[in-house]
Design goal:
The protein is mainly β. The protein is built from four helices and 24 strands.
């Protein structure tokens, strides 16, 4: 199998389905649909089987749900970073016997045990071929991250929505506990677009700040380094503008605007995992969210009991005064950290618009304790 075929489907589950004869017919754009979330179905005579769900349940376990009973003809995983020459050597063939089958309401659920434990937060690709009793086949691939058993208690701390080159927009996080950030996801919804960033594996400590810089300008890319090592010296590895010598810097590799003054931020433990923090910001002139995607994201934050105000723009932090030097800053971090040892501590921590302010001019503090000086 070529490298091109392996990596063509990274970032989504790509399903190529139908009977053997159906695969000979051309596929038109009109025949494509997406179901379930993140799964692209590419047309053909698509009767059965159908893959309904794919979930990573542990470092060595996966769950797949099909509409019908199937037989897995082949299955293997490989690190997504493997090049063409190393792919065969790095692939891990699944033991097809290590499968538990259960009938569920929507179809048939298969729990699979892998022969080796994956590395927390490391990216892999799963390839498999399934066949139903009628001989219809389904080939699919999925990029996934090794299950992280040591997710730290992370909260949103500070956001700068306006760039001023060479300093890009950023989202800052505060670590309430130690753990591995690998596979955690921050979702940012701006206008009609949802941008997701998956954290690289990095062992962090309580009291540490993480700054995610949301652009890498072309003339600074060489110095935009992700600081993933656990030692203190590595925190000064990145030297691009706005790097934080005493905090951990991560960088989005592209140069695109992905957040603005009216945005929704959702922090997830892992892809398709639990939401652990949220932030809603909006300009006062807005009567509603600019898109269904933003409104849906706000609703998710409320339904998850993370954002305890309502889901409308009037329930968000007012961002009218935000500039490149005035950030949206959380004000109750010390209070949360002090209550962490309390046996009644609630996690995730419910958050409200009243926990945030827009700070005064030149009071942005990426990688440092937040300013408590509000704008006037």
């Amino acid at each position: 199998m070529s490298k091109e075929r392996l990596f063509r489907f990274l970032g989504e589950i790509a399903i190529i389905a139908g009977t053997v004869s159906a695969l000979c017919f051309p596929v038109t754009a009109a025949s494509c649909r997406v179901s379930p979330e993140g799964v692209t179905i590419i047309g053909g005579d698509y009767v059965s089987p159908k893959l309904l769900d794919f979930v990573v349940t542990g470092r060595d376990s996966l769950k797949l749900v099909f509409t019908d009973e199937i037989q897995l003809n082949s299955m293997y995983i490989s690190p997504s970073s493997a090049d063409a020459s190393a792919f065969e050597a790095s692939r891990i063939d699944m033991n097809i016997l290590d499968i538990e089958k259960t009938n569920v309401d929507e179809g048939v659920e298969y729990k699979l045990i892998m022969p080796e434990k994956t590395v927390s937060g490391k990216e892999y690709v799963l390839f498999a071929e399934a066949e139903d009793s009628k001989g219809n086949t389904l080939s699919f691939s999925s990029a996934f991250y090794g299950y992280n058993e040591l997710v730290p208690k992370l909260i949103l701390s500070e956001v700068r929505t306006e760039a001023s080159k060479p300093k890009p927009e950023f989202v800052e996080f505060y670590c309430l506990s130690e753990g591995n950030t690998g596979g955690m996801v921050i979702e940012m919804v701006y206008k009609s677009a949802s941008f997701k960033y998956t954290f690289p594996p990095a062992y962090v400590h309580a009291g540490e700040y993480i700054v995610l810089h949301l652009r890498s300008y072309d003339d600074q890319k060489a110095s935009c380094l992700d600081e993933t090592e656990s030692d203190v010296l590595s925190l000064s590895s990145s030297s691009a503008a706005d790097s934080c010598p005493n905090a951990r810097d991560f960088w989005c590799p592209e140069n695109n605007k992905v957040i603005g003054k009216t945005s929704v931020f959702l922090l997830w433990e892992r892809s398709r995992g639990r939401m652990i923090d949220a932030l809603l910001i909006a300009e006062s002139e807005k009567e509603s969210w600019p898109s269904a995607a933003a409104g849906d994201a706000a609703q998710k934050a409320v339904l998850a009991d993370v954002w305890i105000d309502g889901p409308s723009v009037t329930d968000a932090v007012c961002s009218d005064k935000v500039t490149a030097t005035r950030t949206v800053s959380r004000q109750n971090i010390a209070e949360i950290a002090d209550s962490l040892p309390d046996p009644d501590f609630i996690w995730p921590v419910p958050v409200s618009a009243s926990d945030w302010i827009v700070v005064a001019t030149s009071q942005a503090t990426p990688g440092k304790e937040n300013s408590s000086k509000p704008h006037y």
